[in-house]
From TrEMBL, chain A:
Taxonomic source organism: Micromonospora tarensis
Residue ranges occupied by any ABC transmembrane type-1 domain in the UniProt entry: 69-273
Membrane topology according to the record: Multi-pass membrane protein
Location of the protein in the cell: Cell membrane
Family the UniProt entry places it in: Belongs to the binding-protein-dependent transport system permease family. CysTW subfamily.
Protein name as annotated: ABC transporter permease
Key word NADP present: no
This protein's UniProt keywords: Cell membrane, Membrane, Transmembrane, Transmembrane helix, Transport
Keyword Transmembrane applies: yes
PANTHER family with a match to the protein in the record: INNER MEMBRANE ABC TRANSPORTER PERMEASE PROTEIN YDCU-RELATED (PTHR42929:SF1), INNER MEMBRANE ABC TRANSPORTER PERMEASE PROTEIN YDCU-RELATED-RELATED (PTHR42929)
Pfam families membership: BPD_transp_1
Length: 285, 368
């Protein structure tokens, strides 16, 4: 083999292990899932499924689980809005105002990740419980009716989603705000931009890559999540993740679970591409 | 011009007792100066001398510890940067990377709500010879082009004072020379007061009407470039603006219009008008190009003064040859001899005399 030929082959050789891994552990199961979503819905795990290209599974699941589907994106969207309100100022403060506290604050953002997602959500269950101090206090100051609850409400689920995925939004935002050259803000100020205008015309557009990345990293897991609705909500708050979970593990209705999984993936992919295309064009804000 | 006229009358820029301390360090120390309206003023100094801090205080990006900044009769010391009729060309240019060249230039106009901006921006791009560059991104431009966008972006606002923070520092020599001429042309054309900060003495001399040499937060000397060069006020200025030969000596008072100085075991005289001290320890200065090299003391022209020594080095510089002459007293003098083709090279190791017309010498107080 000539040196040139080896040189050309090298990138492919380097790609080989990763590609094989992806094919085996992602490609094959995905194809399997796609096939399962088209199985005859009248079959069962015990009697076996027949492949009948049952495309009707898709409209069926949308019809059956429309409330959970819309709730998923509604809750995830609401949580995203809350997380942006909390996360942007937080990332901004850490990146630009924290000085020597910067690293400590960053550790604080990431620290909750050191414990399990489940444990953290269970902790919220305790905090929000009817007999907890928080509910007691809110009832005492009449912000909550005497029989009012926090747990098992949409509020608790959205709060849980916001809390659990906030670091995924904050970290990319922090990275892009940290990179922002402060001299550009001085230049804006020199060119008659008030602090508000400088933020709108310089800081915000230049933090857009972080904003897009953070939004996606937040929204994707949040819309597919089922733990928060399970632990902090009731079946009335169930999201599409809960339905998929029960389709596979409780009801053992594989075609339905697979169809819902694919639907969720399609919607998320559409959101991602929409987001990235908007980010690619100018003057979004 | 519509909507561009300023309501406040322009005027001289005055800094009064301006001081900026960073902890115990005084970056700018009780600095006072006046920059005439429409003049090209250069603040010259080594890095860390406080010149950029001074500029930033004029722009409002740095708050003075004490002192005032006045524009005409108006005290602008407390004004936020975005309320000052002052614009800056930053050393790093600080162009907005997410905006086109056009939008960069239009930025200031838009923030002040001036519409339409097209005419002004196009005219300004044409002034800096960037016609047709409006749709490009700053990242697509060369250093010199970016520099001109930064200039256009500041000038389009018709500031009363334009501040330039080493704007040519990042450019290569040829481009820098061209931009120096260009900047001077533009300044003459728009008639705006330019305050130019630089560490490059050649840049300051060629461009500015008035140069202020800064050292350790203070102004050492201020005046027309030729005046400062020909008659520096301190040893720092004498060596920062070009080179000087300084001989330590003792002045013994005035005699017949000249200050009499003893240095290197000989007596010299300097006209009173070129002496900063008349008595006590002094430094006798002569510029290297004002010295002439002759073979021996006999050949020194009538009325000239001289020191003798051994030629220790000769470096050919193209336009001239620089000789180093070591005197018997241990001083080393630098002599520039123009390569005009009329002088014969002096060999290293030979004895020679460096002579000068006393009217070209200057006398500094040794404490300066």
């Amino acid at each position: 083999m000539t040196r040139l030929a080896r040189h050309r082959l090298l990138p492919y050789l380097l790609l080989l292990p990763g590609t094989a891994w992806l094919l085996l552990f992602f490609g094959v199961p995905l194809a399997q899932l796609a096939a399962a979503s088209l199985y005859d819905p009248t079959g069962s795990l015990s009697t076996g499924y027949a492949m009948t290209w049952a495309l009707g599974n898709y409209p069926d699941v949308v019809q059956a689980y429309w409330p959970q589907l819309s709730r998923s994106f509604g809750y995830a969207g609401l949580a995203l809005a809350l997380a942006l309100l909390l996360g942007y100022p937080l990332a901004y403060a850490i990146a630009r105002k924290a000085g020597r506290w910067k690293n400590l604050l960053l550790v604080c953002v990431v620290a909750p990740m050191f414990t399990s997602f489940l444990v953290r959500t269970l902790a919220w269950k305790t905090i929000l419980s009817d007999s907890g101090a928080l509910v007691g206090l809110l009832r005492d100051v009449h912000l909550l009716a005497p029989d009012g609850r926090l747990l098992a409400t949409p509020f608790a689920v959205v709060l849980g989603l916001t809390y659990n995925f906030l670091p995924f939004l904050v970290l990319p935002l922090y990275a892009s705000l940290e990179r922002l050259d402060h001299r550009l803000l001085e230049a804006a100020s020199d060119l008659y931009a008030s602090p508000v205008q400088a933020f709108r015309r310089v800081t915000l557009p230049l933090s857009r890559p972080g904003l897009v990345a953070g939004t996606l990293l937040f929204f994707i897991p949040a819309s597919g999540d089922y733990v928060n609705a399970e632990l902090l909500g009731t079946p009335n708050e169930y999201m599409i993740g809960n339905v998929i979970d029960s389709a596979f593990l409780v009801r053992l209705d594989y075609p339905q679970g697979a169809a819902l999984s694919f639907l969720l993936m399609a919607v998320i992919l559409a959101v991602v591409f929409g987001c990235l295309r908007r980010a690619g064009t100018e003057e979004v804000w | 011009m519509t909507g561009m006229a300023r309501e406040t009358p322009a005027g001289d820029l005055r800094l009064a007792n301006l001081t900026r301390r960073f902890g115990a360090l005084s970056a700018v120390d009780d600095l006072s100066l006046t920059v005439g309206q429409g003049s090209f003023f250069a603040l010259l100094g080594a890095s860390g001398c406080g010149k950029t801090t001074t500029l930033r205080m004029i722009a409002g990006l740095e708050e003075p510890t004490s002192g005032r900044v006045l524009l005409g009769d108006r005290d602008i010391t407390a004004l936020r940067p975005y309320r000052r009729p002052v614009n800056t060309v930053f050393q790093s240019y600080a162009l907005f990377p997410h905006l086109s060249v056009f939008e960069n230039v239009a930025f200031g106009l838009r923030r002040r709500g001036i519409r339409p901006v097209d005419g002004e921006v196009t005219r300004m791009l044409s002034l800096v010879q960037l016609d047709g560059y409006g749709s490009r991104r700053p990242a697509q431009l060369s250093g010199g082009e970016q520099q001109r966008v930064a200039l256009a972006r500041a000038l389009v606002n018709r500031p009363q004072v334009l501040l330039l923070d080493e704007p040519l520092g990042a450019l290569d020599l040829t481009l820098r020379r061209r931009m120096q001429v260009e900047l001077k042309r533009i300044q003459t054309e728009v008639g705006v007061t330019f305050v130019h900060v630089t560490h490059d003495q050649e840049e300051a001399i060629t461009m500015a009407d008035t140069v202020a040499v800064m050292n350790a937060g203070r102004i050492e000397q201020q005046g027309a470039p030729a005046d400062i060069y020909e008659f520096p006020a301190t040893a720092f200025v004498a060596n920062f603006l070009g080179q000087s030969n300084l001989l330590a000596g003792e002045a013994a008072g005035v005699s017949g219009g000249d200050v009499v100085v003893t240095a290197q075991g000989a007596r010299f005289s300097v006209p009173v008008g070129r002496a900063r001290a008349e008595r006590g320890p002094v430094q006798l200065g002569v510029r290297p190009e004002k010295l002439r090299l002759v073979g021996s003391a006999d050949q020194v022209p009538q009325g000239h003064q001289h020191v003798t020594g051994v030629v220790t080095d000769a470096s050919y510089l193209g336009v001239s040859t620089q000789y180093l002459l070591r005197t018997g007293w241990g001083a080393e003098l630098s002599v520039f001899v123009a390569n005009s083709g009329t002088s014969t090279p002096v060999p290293v190791g030979s004895t020679a005399a460096a002579c000068w017309d006393p009217r070209h010498a200057f006398l500094l107080s040794a404490s300066s």
